[in-house]
Specification:
Helix content: 25-40%
Number of helices: 19
Largest sheet: 8 strands, parallel
Structural class: alpha/beta
Radius of gyration: 23 Å
Distance between the termini: 29 Å
Shape: globular
Number of strands: 12
Strand content: 5-15%
Low-confidence stretches: 500-505
Length: about 500
């Protein structure tokens, strides 16, 4: 990885007139901003359909895209919506926050209108649409059926469906496919349109010299098409329900541990298939991203397993992961996949060894550097083969973090990064400068830090179920002056890779 820089900005946080960021002209404008800022990468959060708590890490599918990101204006330009239909639905009135409730109730109505026009125009027999369905059939068939049954069951988790559907009895599944054929086609159409629009956005990014870093959650949601349709991939009983779920063991901060609720993988069974499901998942991600950030990389070493019916983690136990064998197999099947690891949290010798043995870059969070003088995140301890952030989507914004520090901590931080500023906005930029100055090959800064936002710009507060993932950029808020300031910093710290010069004949 060449020395370079990028910005972390979720698709959902882009400005648009439709309640949430999408693959629209505003996304293209943000790519233009990245280019003008001397950036090489745009890092986004997971783009799957959001689930519990509106979290992109709780998706109903490890393969599907979020229909909310489909741009309505593009649908109109393609003749699938009229001007009146385009503006007939309420997606929320606050341009700085996502209203997921209104999106849930109204976005699918808009997309169904577009689908009806698509059908009227003969879209179901369109060569491109048919080719898409054929190529993606290995996951799309199960996903569209899963979502259609879920809609029929008033949104209930598949664990609460009738037994014959829950356990995928052949007769019940065949009847459901016939009964829900049109609804399944609608879900296929949304995935087709999602990928078609995303492909154009990525092509535009590449033309501007910007690559996209995607985020792959390690776990999948318990209420997902993946667990329902592929119980053999997970540690499940005969009824398809998980035997255990993931969490954390009891400690001084949480005497009874934590239950995350994600199903655990059956690594022994996966190994016998040469990790087929996972390899397909990574291959699918490579079709969308230039670089993949794997969330919770420690899960490849071990996971803490808690019996499914338990109410706390007291009876939990460590379950070993596949380790280096997984990545050896990935290289055999998929070649050199560009990825880095979210290796934060409980740093053990085994975790460090896997990272070193695979050569995969890990993450460094600058906010963690000033908790103690010997923190492993102190800039002078960092190496080239790493990705540095001021903070990520789970952290406070750097401005809020700075204001939360005790007097001794902020004094230490200011002394270390040579910040003479008492103004917190200026201090935030000094922190960004320290990240840019670090030896790490790649530096990623959340857009909120460049804007010196406080608590209103925070994306997620771990351990809370409400009020997360809602921040949006104010319309037309990014200025050329900001882009030039970022560009100057990228240039100063050699984070603008030199253009390749072709030798003269």
């Amino acid at each position: 990885m060449k020395r370079s820089a990028g910005i972390l900005m979720p698709i959902s946080s882009l400005d648009s007139g439709f309640g949430i960021g999408c693959f629209s002209k505003e996304a293209n404008r943000f790519i233009d901003f990245l280019k003008e800022s001397g950036q090489s990468y745009w890092q986004i959060l997971p783009i799957g359909p959001t689930g519990f708590g509106d979290s992109p890490y709780q998706s109903s599918s490890a393969f599907a895209g979020n229909p909310y990101y489909i741009d309505p204006v593009t649908l109109k330009e393609d003749g699938l919506l009229s001007e009146q239909e385009l503006w007939s639905y309420d997606f929320g009135n606050d341009p700085e926050k996502v209203d997921y409730g209104k999106l849930y109730h109204n976005r699918y109505l808009l997309l169904k209108t577009a689908y009806d026009h698509f059908v009227e125009k003969g879209g179901l027999t369109n060569d491109d649409y048919c080719a898409f369905k054929t190529k993606e059939a290995d996951w799309l068939d199960d996903y569209s059926l899963f979502m259609s049954i879920k809609r029929e069951q008033d949104g209930k988790s598949w664990l609460d469906w009738p037994k014959e559907l829950r356990e995928r009895k052949e007769a019940a599944i065949m009847q459901a496919r016939v009964r829900l054929e049109e609804l399944m086609e609608f879900y296929c159409f949304m995935q087709y349109e999602f990928k078609r629009q995303y492909r154009k956005l990525r092509e535009y990014a590449h033309k501007q010299g910007i690559e996209i870093i995607g985020d792959m959650p390690f776990f999948v949601s318990i209420d997902s098409a993946d667990l329902w349709s592929h119980p053999e991939v997970f540690r499940t009983g005969k009824d398809g329900k998980p035997k255990e779920v993931a969490g954390t063991p009891p400690d001084a901060f949480s005497p009874k541990g934590q239950i995350w609720g994600f199903p655990l993988y059956n690594w022994d069974a996966l190994k016998k298939t040469k990790y087929r499901w996972w390899m397909r998942r990574i291959e699918h991600a490579c079709d969308f991203y230039d670089v993949i950030r794997i969330d919770h990389f420690h899960g490849f070493v071990s996971a803490f397993a808690i019996p499914y019916e338990d109410k706390d983690a007291v009876r939990g136990f460590a379950e070993k992961g596949p380790g280096e064998a997984f990545f050896t197999e990935m290289k055999k099947q998929l070649g050199d996949v560009r990825l880095f690891a979210e290796d934060l949290g409980n740093v053990t010798e085994e975790n460090v060894k896997l990272l070193n043995d695979t050569g995969i870059p890990g993450m460094k969070i600058l906010q963690y550097a000033f908790t103690s003088w010997d923190s492993i995140y102190m800039p002078h301890k960092l190496t080239k083969n790493a990705v540095i952030y001021t903070g990520n989507h789970d952290n406070m914004t750097t401005r809020s973090w700075a204001e939360s520090l005790k007097e001794g901590e902020i004094k230490f931080a200011r002394s270390y990064i040579r910040s003479v500023n008492t103004d917190y906005n200026a201090f935030t930029w000094d922190m960004i400068r320290e990240a840019y100055h670090s030896p790490c090959d790649l530096c990623i800064i959340p857009l909120q830090d460049f804007l010196c936002l406080k608590e209103e710009g925070r994306m997620n507060t771990p351990g809370t179920a409400q009020g997360n993932w809602v921040w949006r950029l104010k319309p037309n808020f990014l200025s050329r002056e900001l882009a030039l300031a970022i560009h100057e910093m990228a240039s100063t710290y050699s984070r603008i890779p030199p253009k390749e010069v072709k030798a003269e004949d």
